[in-house]
Amino acid sequence: MRSRRLIPVAALAVAAITLAGCGLGSSDDTSSDSKPTVDANTKVTGEVSLQTWALKPKFTSYVEGVVKAFEAKYPGTKVTWLDQPGDGYDKKVLSQASAGQLPDVVNLPPDFALPLAKQNLLLDVAAADPKLSEEYVEGGIQAYQYQGQNGTFGYPWYLNTDIDYWNSAKFTAVGLDAKNPPKTFDELLAAAKVMHDKSGGKEYLMSRLPGIGDFTNAGVKVLSDDGKTFTFNTPEAVALLEKYRAAYQAGYLPRDILTQEYLGNSKLFTQGKVAWTTGGGNAIQDFQKDNPSLKGKVVASPALDTPPLYVQGLSVSAKTKNQAAAIALARFVTNAENQAAFAKIVNIFPSTKASGGDPYFSKSDGTPESDAKVLAFASLAKAKSLQPAVISGATNDFINQQISLAIAGKVTSKAALDAAVAKANQLLTQ
Amino acid sequence: MRKGVRYQRWFTPWVLVIPALAWLLVFNLWPSVNTVILSFTNARPIGGGSFVGLKNFETLLHDEQLRYALLNSVIYMVVCLPFLTIFPLLLAVLVEKKLPGITFFRTAFYTPVVASAVVVALIWQWILDDRGLVNGLAEKLGVISGPLPFLSDQWLLLLSAISLTIWKGLGYYMIIYLAALGNVGRELHEAAAVDGASPLRRFIHVTIPGVRGTMVLISILISVSALRVFSELFILSGGKGGPGGRDNSVVMLIQQYSQGFEGNLGYASALSIVLFFVTVVPMLVLARLNRKAADA
């Protein structure tokens, strides 16, 4: 009787395991779908889709203008523009990719494009477009080239970087000069101490934990050359964590940074609770819009050490049925003229070499907003991608958790970094 | 004619059952079976994966994050269970009385239930922040010299989340008890009163046995929701699971592992299976205790 009852259970288990074995594709698929079958001279015609990320309704007329211009330049083409909301964009792209319904041209930052490139879902645009490296800045192109993947998996669209913003009123109150702000991390720590001590522990300068970008800036090699192992558990990284830990224990950083999201930094700055944050070239406008009492009090300066480089790009689906039109559209949307026009209405920076000489980006009209924009644009020249694209969300979470533990004094800095590297390697090889 | 009727009798139930059966298979049974299948693989959101046997379960055994998550879930359940089983009953007994203005109190106690968990947790985040209402007031009154780390200390954060759950759950379970109290015969109370039983004795010997079935049901509901807690801990910890992720719940871990392009669906599925068994155990224990008490 008992064995009879077990039969359906066993059958179900066998079926489940059998299905598990045969129902899933192998992750080692090495087919070369990413190589284009057309070149730049192929006639462009037919239908093609373009997916952007949260550009409606603010930039509807701009995108529609670009689409119309493309259709006029290539008679016989028809562009279907899809715009996805900002929240959950990664999930949307993920579901499109899993269903094999990725739009022909899709806006993907480099870290979104990497897993798709690994699965041969994106086209190597450099193979179809030999002029790519001539027309776009090197950092933008490199962002779409990954260790272990042969090709360039997106046209750089627009760039951004971070500069530093300081609250001059808080600086003055404790006898610091916001016009001569800290230029190195050690100077930042020293200023944080002054702000804490002179305000009786009421005011804070710093409000963020270190991340992978800070390790890179401290000269730590985050990833091995072959991109297969993480290596950031070095004495330099330990020393950096120790500095943060000492500052935290001394009360120079708010306690809740252990649980705050990264953006807590700029939120607290906007709320007037801390005196320093980092942000893009247009962040000053947001600070003042969200908190008008900050008007006239925000001073910008170049980022400490190497500024981070943030890249957005347009990738072409490897499964597109109209490669010629898709490549042409991605190139058209990201060309110097269209990027410069876009950058002038959205306060980002173009990734084409030809846009570099545009005085709009390089000359200030004297307002703090314009000064910040010019400062950010100048910073782009030495900006670098500080975080490897192979760091996934789960890996980043775990690293941040270990950093929190070290800063809070729950584990030693070395133990936290060792644990973070071990877990990151495990997640990398899964 | 008779043959036709018999023929209809044979397939008519099936026609009626098929939509519900299809729904059950596709949306209830298949996801569960699929979770079991995925737990034996290293599946990713894109590109599939391959069969890895028991590797995910072996990894689970050494996962420190899971140990903390399970500990948090058990603490959550152990603290919430007595509070949310007993206090709503006392509250229900209080507001059951027909007094002028009692509707106001019933509504007031129920208000937190109506509010969204996310909104409530955000409000509590503002209240418990280092510069929030509680710390601000306590500092002004001179009770504390520096802010208490409600949201940045591993145990205080857990305690804050538990308090939030209890605060939000009181009204909900109170309503269930109110319905149950309506079924406790008034004559029993009257008879006990005639026999000289004090209100406390009447509560212990009449009210509690009268709502025992409801208490078991509520205990099961509390256990299950405490073990599956997500929004309170997620929002109070800013989505980070507290310092070092030590305030994660199992559901938060599942969410963390499964999200993003590189999400590890296989491991997240293995975690889901662990959560399933962890949830089933207290349900079975409580149901068994109830059966024993009923037999006694």
Automatic annotation (TrEMBL), chain A:
<dbReference type="Pfam" id="PF13416">
    <property type="entry name" value="SBP_bac_8"/>
</dbReference>
<keyword id="KW-1003">Cell membrane</keyword>
<keyword id="KW-0472">Membrane</keyword>
<keyword id="KW-0564">Palmitate</keyword>
<dbReference type="InterPro" id="IPR050490">
    <property type="entry name" value="Bact_solute-bd_prot1"/>
</dbReference>
<keyword id="KW-0449">Lipoprotein</keyword>
<keyword id="KW-0732">Signal</keyword>
<protein>
    <submittedName>
        <fullName>Extracellular solute-binding protein</fullName>
    </submittedName>
</protein>
<dbReference type="InterPro" id="IPR006059">
    <property type="entry name" value="SBP"/>
</dbReference>
<feature type="signal peptide">
    <location>
        <begin position="1"/>
        <end position="20"/>
    </location>
</feature>
